[in-house]
Amino acid sequence: MNELISNILRGSVSSVMYVILLFTLTKSKFGRKSTIIVAASVFFINIVSTIWFYVYGDLTALSRFNVVLFIVVALALKILTRVNFMQWSFTFLTTINIAMMIIILSFHLGKLFPEPQYANTIIRLGLYIVVIFLFQRYLLPLYQSIVNNWPIFSALVVCIFLNLSYYFYATDDIQNTLTTFKWPLFLLVTLTLAAYGTIFYSLKRFAEMYALETENLKIQNETGLLHQAALELEKYANYDTLTGLPNRRFFFERLEKVLAESERNTSKFAILFIDLDGFKDINDTYGHEVGDGVLIAVGKRLLKCIRETDFAARLGGDEFAVIFHDIEDIISAENKGKSIHTMLQEIMYIDTIECNVNSSIGIAIYPDTGKDSDALLRNADLAMYAIKRNGKGGIGAAVPDTFSTNGHLARVHVKPNP
Prior knowledge:
The chain has 418 residues and is α+β, with helices and mostly antiparallel strands. It has helices spanning 2-24, 32-56, 59-77, 85-110, 116-148, 150-169, 174-180, 182-238, 248-265, 279-286, 288-305, 330-345, 373-389, and strands spanning 269-277, 311-316, 319-324, 348-350, 353-355, 358-366, 394-400, 412-417.
C-alpha cells in the first residue's frame, strides 16, 4: 500500500509539475485559470493510470505511459498558447528533456535517504520548483529569444531528446536501466546542462553586446538629430523663412567679412539696396498670400542675377540687398543693378494672378562711398530714397564728394538712372 501511495505521489508530481513548467515556458492565452484546470485534469488521469499500472505491476509501462501522456497533454495545450506550432514543439522537447533529467537525478539522489521512494518524490518536486523559479526569475527572457530562433537550436534539442529518451524506451525495466547506466546517465545529464548553460550564457552575452550596439546607434541617431536640429536652428537664425534668402542678421555678418577681405585684398565691392515699388498695392488688392508669392518670386529672380560668390538677402518687408564682389568701378555696379531692375519688372504670375512690380535700387561702392558697413548701408539707402523722391523705379549710385577725417562720407550726390 505504501508503495502504491509513493508511486501515485511521484507520478502526480511529475505530471502536474510538467504542465506548470510547460506553461512557464510559454505564453498562455487564458492565464492561470486554464493552467489550473489542465493541471487538475492531468493529476486525475495520472492517479487513475498509476493505480492501474501498479495493479499490473508494470512500472516501466507506467513511465512510458507518462511520456505518452506528456505528448498528448502538450498537443492539447497548444491551442491555449500564443506561439506557433514549431515554437511549441521546441518548447515541448525542452520540457521533456528537463523532465527526464529531473527523473534521473531524483531517482539516484533519493537512494541517499532512508525512505528512497518518498525522498525521490520530494527531491523531484524540489527540482521542478527550482527549475521553474530559475526560469521565471532569470532565464525566461533568454529562453524566449531561443524559442524565437528555434531553427538555430532545434538540432541540439532534438539530439538531447533522442539521447535521454533512449534509456526510457529501449528497456523493459526502467528502474534497472536507471541503476545500471547510472554514470552514463549522469554524464549525459552533465553534458545536457553544459549545452543549455552555454546557450543561455552565450545569448546573455550577445544580448548585452546587442544592447550596447543598440545604445551606441541610439546615441549616434540622437547626435545626428541634435546636429540636424542645430542646422535647423542655424537656418531659422540666418535665413528668411518665406523666401529662403539670408536674413538681415546673416547679411550684416557677411558684410563684415567682405569688408575685412576687401581691406586685406584692396579690392572693391558694391552693395545694392532694393525696395519694391507697388508692393503695398498688391497686398491690399490681392491679399497677403499673393504678396508672399511676389516676395518669393523676387528672391528667386535675385538669385538668377548674381554669381555664386555674390550674396543676396531679404532685409525685411519688401526690402532686399545684394553684395557684388570684385567690382571694378561704379559703371559695372550700375550694369548689374540694371540687370536686376529689368528682371524684376517682368510680369509675375502668382497662381492665376498677373502681378507687376517695379524697384528702386540704391548703390554704394567700397571704399569709394564708405569704408564701414554703417556708411555703406546709409549711402545705399540714401541713393535708393533719392530714386523714390524722383518718381520711383530706377537706379541711383552714391557718388563721393568730400571725406571726413574718419573716412565716412560727408555728403552724397545721387546720379539717377532713367
